């Protein structure tokens, strides 16, 4: 099948967007899928650039819209499965052994995390696929906890399809202004990251205060 190229004024020529455009030019839908699979494995690769660019390519007839959605969702699932299998290989016992050597944490913290995942794991995997940064990381605890693979694959597919459709369609509708999507999603990513950092700081402070209280009590 002959593929058109993105030889347009708004075609990115360098950086991550240029790399993704080259993949789509060279491979069509599978190229977009490969880019998103790698984005899952390496979260610094931004889906908020790759997906709208893929939608833009679909709008220009480089690939079909159905192909864009199919291949990017398949790429999301494949990348998530790799991380899931990494979590399985690490395993619960090894994770506990690693956790026990970390400062400022207790085994009971990990036990509570596992209990929370047992209760809310399905929601975490589904919703996590639509949250920047965590959309990749959530696959690892799913593997560690050995969530049934069919359930994990289904939730990942559904969550990824929602996220991919929103960003691909945004690029499709915005046309030459597809890159504006990154601005808005980038703000969301920064808010999520800031919230996580604040939570970590609060956790560390509370842990040190707890240790100080126990020390003075003794």
From TrEMBL:
The record's InterPro entries line, in alphabetical order, gives: DedA_domain, VTT_dom
Which residues are in the VTT domain? 45-172
Name the domain of life this protein comes from: Bacteria
> Which membrane topology describes this protein?
Multi-pass membrane protein
* Primary location group: membrane
- The membrane-spanning stretches of this chain are 62-86, 151-175, 187-206
Q: Which Pfam families match?
A: VTT_dom
User: Where does this one sit in the cell?
Assistant: Cell membrane
> Which keywords belong to this entry?
Cell membrane, Membrane, Transmembrane, Transmembrane helix
Record's keyword annotation contains Methyltransferase: no
Q: Which family does it belong to?
A: Belongs to the DedA family.
The name of this protein is VTT domain-containing protein
Q: Which classification does the entry list for the species?
A: Bacteria, Bacillati, Actinomycetota, Actinomycetes, Kitasatosporales
């Amino acid at each position: 099948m002959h593929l058109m190229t993105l030889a347009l004024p708004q075609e990115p020529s360098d950086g991550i967007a240029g790399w993704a455009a080259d993949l789509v030019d060279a491979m069509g839908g599978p190229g977009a899928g490969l880019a998103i699979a790698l984005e899952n494995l390496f979260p610094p690769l931004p889906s908020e650039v790759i997906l709208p660019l893929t939608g833009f390519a679909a709008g220009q007839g480089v690939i079909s819209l159905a192909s864009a959605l199919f291949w990017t969702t398949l790429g999301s699932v494949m990348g998530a499965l790799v991380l899931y299998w990494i979590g399985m290989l690490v395993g619960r016992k090894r994770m506990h052994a690693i956790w026990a050597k970390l400062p400022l944490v207790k085994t009971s913290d990990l036990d509570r995390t596992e209990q929370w995942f047992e209760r809310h794991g399905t929601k975490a995997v589904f919703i996590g696929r639509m949250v920047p940064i965590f959309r990749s990381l959530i696959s690892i605890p799913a593997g560690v906890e050995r969530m049934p693979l069919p359930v994990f694959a289904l939730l990942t597919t559904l969550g990824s399809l929602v996220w991919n459709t929103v960003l691909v369609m945004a690029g499709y509708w915005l046309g030459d202004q597809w890159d504006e999507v990154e601005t808005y999603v980038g703000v969301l990513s920064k808010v999520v990251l800031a919230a996580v950092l604040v939570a970590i700081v609060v956790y560390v402070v509370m842990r040190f205060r707890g240790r100080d209280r126990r020390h003075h009590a003794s």
